[in-house]
Amino acid sequence: MNSNELVTLTRDVQAAVVPVGTQVTLQAGEQAQITQSLGNSITVIVNGNMFRIDGKNADALGLEIPSAVAGGDKATAATPEELEQQIWESMRACYDPEIPVNIVDLGLIYDCGITPLTGGTHRVDVKMTLTAPGCGMGPTLQQDVETNLLSIQGVEEANVELVWDPPWNQGMMSEAAKLQLGFY
Question: Which of 66, 86, 129, 173 is deepest in the core (most CB within 10 A)?
Answer without folding.
Answer: 129
